[in-house]
């Protein structure tokens, strides 16, 4: 039987309204009900009213009053070209209504109760049954437990006293007595203080005398049904017999006794219930966002709160609101003014209602679950500016739920008027004339015009606009345009320029749509025919178009890199040719490649892990990659037979053949950093990656760099403790199996050399190493010396008080400038012989840590090294508030640190003096924390890492590599980009992705 697809259903307990597309049924259509399991039918009186594009069918509740118990499906009989046709009635889509099958509230019929509902196939009907059965199926059930601490009787009642009160007086409460298949519902009342419920003895006459009846308490709260299982707690003087459950047995003389069982199960308190609540008329008008809630859905006397929850975050924003009550509904009004000029983070905020029942908190997602919104325009209810350049846009999600979108005007238009732009053709002449052909489809409207292509500098307002050379109309919603751009004539700035189509929509709305590529052949020719698509300028700069990770068309303007010559590209393809001939040689003995920062150093976790592998597993083919002539090349002299020089043919061949890349930095540091074109980059991206880390996580937030399932994500993420593992799982999104607790490789060689060194030099040392600040990266030198960072540290280095403390105690302070701030190192000065300013490479950080007696830092992970060696640490956090706002930490820096903190120079110098006077002894309060922050304090961290990599190399991770291969496939990317907007493809892709993620 065909289905008459409805666009919305409203039910207020007395009137049913069905929303249909205008003309879906004729004026002579006949609506009736048919019982699911029998041939019974019931005629309906109805009225059809047309308004705009819709027909509204209204049926009042008197049509349902005399229905027999059962499930009655709504059907319609209408005229057809030949004869009549009969159709069921229901929603055409299913996803948004899968969890909402009933249209509350429940209403009373002549001999029963009824409620509108949806079947599993989204057919609409009326369910008629006892009130108890409807409540059990229609209301949201929550199972709770209570102890009965005493039972008292009066002349007419039995009073059950409860250990923990049932908060919040309810609209209805009752007790269900059950014996076998027989159930008897007996009304009860809960006392105002919630500590007692009462049953009238006269009601117990319904119970048969010689049966055992189990008893449960049911409390109705709006659309929530609390189901209480009851247990005995020392009701000693009343028990005469014991049965399973809470039983009541009547005695012939009319008296009774209560039988209980002991229950030792863990009881729950403050149980939160999460669910959904239907609302209607979500609107933005005047200064309010409003929606309607049926009065039958919750008790207005409850404590109600409304809040927004930022999606995928923990941020919560409680809302001010005003309630206007009408006959059948309450209108909730949320004033816009509470958002104006407030620091509301951009993103998607979901709307919830919180109902406090005292001991129980009910939290529900709000949505228009009983309607269908076929177009994107219908889902957005408006927008209002709330800050400079930012708008607040209430909208209805694809699951029919209420949300707010806080975004720029441009991103709002992108959401409201989705457009699909596809790169159709791309050519470039030797003279630098780039010809771009793109198609645009805007399914929400037929009235749009393409003004041209805009080239925008990423992260900047700089842009160039190019008019249309040729336009072709494909269909009502799709156009194709061609534009020519002379790249050699444009005053480019570094680095990245993105292509957009500029379009004009209804009402003079202008928006820009990113040009994306779903053409496999265009992607391939830009990646491998780089000589044709690259302009080499006379000043050493280069310009070339490329496809971004997200599929967008962009342009790069930058200095030509060290490894982007014709010779380097020839080496890449030569290595690839050799690999194609010899690949079978690498199948049985896997190759591991190890590198550090930009493949220039050999002093961090990667080096020490390589050293362990070389010395303990010499038969394994494990190689270390380093640039020829680097400062640390000498560190690798004992292992020269397993050293590979960066970007040599051997290195490129091993990159193609390798099974695992191991590094303390990003995987990309093992290849030319900026090079995104050519065949090698694809292979690098698809390799298994073990991330050894540069330091311990905790003091500094860095999860945006190494989040799971991104370009830098690792197959194995090395951590030092369960504490750190929790950070990686919560903030980086890593599954349990991808995080290994082993400790860091470089800790294997850590030892306390402070006593030996101070004896030899007759001088104790303090190691002072602050970290960098993200807001000061790459600023001009003149701006850096004006910063509070430079002022704080340079003034401290020249403090007379500090110099005096160091001189009097013959202690040297080594101030080590972070590598990221090397351009500014010459600005730091000190004329005192006890203060030495050092830069990256002067001495190894490990050596400085081992020989020092005390470490001073701010938020650097070097603190963990010192703590591992059981030496004291001081934290100098003069800019804590600014640091937390701009960088952030995973730890509470005011409570969780393992060293004392100085917030100003005076406090810090005083702490330094105290430690000198106490011979640099670590305080006991911090010693106790070591077991909390480290799982292991030994010298076998590298061994644990090696074993974990070997153990994980099984069939499970081979499947994972297949997934990585598909994920990095140009063909898969192109097909996905082209077809993902189609529902069936999107759902299938999501299912495949979910399957691989669960491996």
From TrEMBL:
Gene3D superfamilies recorded: 3.40.50.12580
Matches recorded under Pfam families: Glyphos_transf
Entry-linked InterPro entries: Glycerophosphate_synth (IPR007554), TagF_C (IPR043148), Teichoic_Acid_Biosynth (IPR051612)
Record field: transmembrane: 573-594
Domain of life the protein comes from: Bacteria
Alphabetically ordered keywords of this record: Membrane, Transmembrane, Transmembrane helix
Protein name (Swiss-Prot/TrEMBL): CDP-glycerol glycerophosphotransferase family protein
Organism ancestry: Bacteria, Bacillati, Bacillota, Bacilli, Bacillales
